[in-house]
Design goal:
The chain is mainly α and 279 residues long. The chain is built from 13 helices and no strands.
């Protein structure tokens, strides 16, 4: 993997089609170089620019799995949900070449996560749940292979970590989408363990989002803008914990009564809170 210090110089130099030798000749960037630069732009929220580079990678090699992954993520970020789903779906049908592209670790998880978000955005809760279940199985397989039960997927982990970048897109987001789809289906009992797992991870400092935990000023903004409903006991509990560097330990062990309106309201409150914290 290219070191970040000279990455931009190298990639721009190569993509201009020139390099220093005794004679001038064209340099044709590989599909991997095209896609890697696309991910750099993606991390900078230049989704239109990133999509152009991923498009070139796919046009150069119609079997290049990471190019389809990038096309899916950028189209999703740009709001083209149907296109995002199509590229993710086509990408997962391709064969991952770990010999040719050894740095593309966990590419299947990158695509499954994107598929889950796209299915959720389309409004297909049954499909979202099915994809998230497959994601969970794949993540558990990686955890077993690493011997690390605390490992959590994060988008393009190997590439971005080598460049000291982080998109803050990870397993928490997939579990939250999974929980929302179960909630929409009325399967409230399936929502609780997903929310508790996210909160347990946050409590243990696993994949903490930026500016976490929220301070009182953040909570006031959410309340003033009606972004979080006034479940008084829960809101007071959130305020009480807002001056510490720790996430409320009660959040990871709540056992809501799903047969009561109060219990369902509390689940909605926690979903709202985690969306604000993570997204």
């Amino acid at each position: 993997m290219i070191n970040r210090n000279n990455y931009f110089t190298t990639i721009l130099f190569l993509l201009l089609g020139l390099f220093a030798t005794n004679c001038r000749q064209d340099y044709v960037p590989t599909d991997e170089e095209l896609a890697d630069y696309g991910w750099i732009l993606f991390s900078e929220n230049d989704f239109i620019g990133a999509r152009d580079w991923f498009q070139q990678a796919v046009e150069k090699d119609a079997t290049y799995m990471d190019g389809f992954c990038g096309m899916g993520w950028t189209n999703g970020k740009l709001g083209y949900v149907d296109s995002a789903y199509r590229y993710f779906n086509e990408g997962q049908e391709l064969t991952y070449d770990d010999i040719r592209f050894p740095t593309h670790e966990n590419l299947k998880l990158d695509i499954l996560a994107g598929l889950a978000f796209a299915a959720n955005a389309i409004g297909n809760d049954n499909l979202t749940v099915s994809i998230c279940q497959e994601f969970d199985y794949e993540e558990e397989s990686v955890q077993a292979s690493k011997g690390d039960g605390n490992w959590r997927w994060t988008l393009k982990e190997k590439l971005f970590s080598s460049l000291d970048l982080d998109t803050q897109i990870n397993s928490h987001d997939v579990r939250l989408v999974h929980a929302i789809s179960h909630f929409n289906k009325g399967n409230f009992e399936n929502v609780i363990p997903l929310l508790n797992q996210i909160n347990l991870d946050l409590e243990n400092g696993i994949r903490e989002p930026n500016n976490f935990p929220p301070m009182q000023a953040d909570i006031d903004v959410w309340k003033d803008n009606s972004l979080i409903n006034e479940n008084n006991a829960l809101l007071e509990q959130l305020y009480d914990n807002s001056n510490t560097a720790l996430w409320d330990t009660a959040y990871s062990s709540w056992d809501y009564n799903v047969n009561s309106l109060t219990g369902i309201d509390s689940i909605m409150w926690m979903i709202d809170l985690l969306q604000l914290v993570l997204w």
